[in-house]
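Weekly structure sync - notes
Attendees: PM, LS, DV (DV joined late)
Agenda: review two folding runs queued last week.

Item 1: First target. Sequence and structure tokens pasted below for the record.
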Amino acid sequence: MRAMRAKGFNGYGDLEMVNLPKPQISNGKVLVRMTAAGVTPLDHTILSGQYPKAKAPLVLGNEGAGVVEDGGGTEFPAGSRVMFTGVYGVAQDGTYSEWLAVRKQNLCLIPKAVDDVTAAGVPVAYLTAQMALDLAGFQAGKTVLAPAIGGSVGNATTQLARALGAKHAVSSTTNHKKAGQAKALGFEEVVDLSAETLSGGVRRITEGYGADIVIDAIGGEILSEALSTLALGGSLTTLGYSAGRKATIDLTDLIWKRASMKSFSLFAQPQAAWEKAWNTIVPLLQSGAIKPIVAKTFPLAEAADALRYLVEDRPFGRVILSI
């Protein structure tokens, strides 16, 4: 089978097309013929040598969609369209390939209303967003801030919060063009950071109240500013660092507001949390209440270009490999 494998972790040039044996299934795994793979910042982190636990050579790809060929039983019979994520492309070969042996507990049936390319970019972003909202105690009527409307988790959190009845589902962008794109797509509560500060924009939108819940996948200075937007008793969950691994915070943003700050890691969550999240996400996908955005697709052979586009061009929406 064809696969895009990293021979080392020294950048885009280390990705190469190779021919590998078709995987054999055992120990409850399901053979999936891949149709599309999501391209994520984690893939770039690994390829650039910033994730020391990964070992080369490694087929990248942390999430994807495909068709069950064998091993799915009655729950996922042959021909079922599925989407999934897991430790693929991290601790074992991943989704940048024509076939993959997938743990059954990682699989989710793709709703009929969703095509495979769109589905390939759903698992990481929407599972992360929904579980983080659950852990933060989200309920209808809460105000949520999720910076980076064009990013995967920022957009997913905004869409989920809005669909689930948030009073305000606020996001942001540092790019004036993206602010226009967001508005055209129906995202009205987006702070244009080229025109106002994050705290100022959140105060304006919420009429001075602030955010009950912040889900931050950006880190760096954005985290520092997001913390200052918290309402009394609010919480901030940090789960990414594309804008920087270090941030300086004002402790009074926590102390005076009796607020809290915590971290989140998708793959540290129990299976029950995954199942609960999928049970929330799938009906919303089927009904169209949430609509994942795909910015661009690339063929499998152009995986390096896809990663470069994601990291350097910072598109509005997901980047997907068609297989």
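Item 2: Second target, run right after the first with the same settings.
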Amino acid sequence: MDLRHIRAFLAVAEELHFGKAARRLHIAQPAVSQLVRGLEAEFGVILFERTSRRVSLTPAGQVLLGEARDLLARHDRISERMARIRTGETGEVGIGTIPALPPDLLPGLLTEWRRQLPDVLVVARSLSSGLTATAALDRTDVDIALLRGEVSDSGVSAVEVAREPIGIAVAATDALAARPSLTATDLDGRAIVTFPRSADPVEFDRLFGALRARGLRSHTIHESAPGGVDASLRLVRSALAVSLKLESEVRAVRDAGVVWRPLDDPAIDVVITAAWRPDQLGPASRQLVSVLRGQHPPHT
């Protein structure tokens, strides 16, 4: 038995006429009769009473009618669900996230993905700071990674999803808070709270290399966990240190004892990039990438 037998039986049962059933199925009438006879032979029952004038269902046919409708409805539901998986309308996608993302970035992305792809489950996976795109995407549960910096790894595609300038968080009582903007030399001799170099050597050297190149000579480093904005700003609020921060990070904490000032010299941007391997994306992941590309055209 296969679905052809069931469809043939159902057409005859609903039309109560083999010729009309054949036209409905777009096959020859003998083929319909053969399919019905095959079903009767398999079950060992008679499904239709046939005379020269009429066709009617037997008691066995009445029972099979309800079952056949349920079976075909289930088949149609399964087919629809499989089609939605095949086209990426449903499924699960793992998003790898580093600790030090702008605070509103991931919630904003998740909200937009849910709006455009409501039946795709997006699960955030925690990544260590300082990973390359290749290392992040080697994880089997990560389809797309949100990383800090530009991405040029072989076999990896990427799009910039956020760019924000770094500034300085200072205590509201600090003399630096009275200035509209700051420079590297304003930080000379200060204690600076930041993530440890071991957590992300590339980013650490990029930031402090730029500061040293513009006049920072003497400073003390207090280490704070990557993404540990609250902990680092507690030191800032106590006027024990200043900190390199995004304005969005300081704004999210809502601490009146801490203010943010732009860093004008040098001007340093933090770039967040979404990265993926095109040849390893499933249908749902490809849909998310399409949304990302629509939200964030290539940066020029």
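Discussion on item 2: The two ends are 60 Å apart (CA to CA).
Action: LS to circulate a short write-up before next sync.
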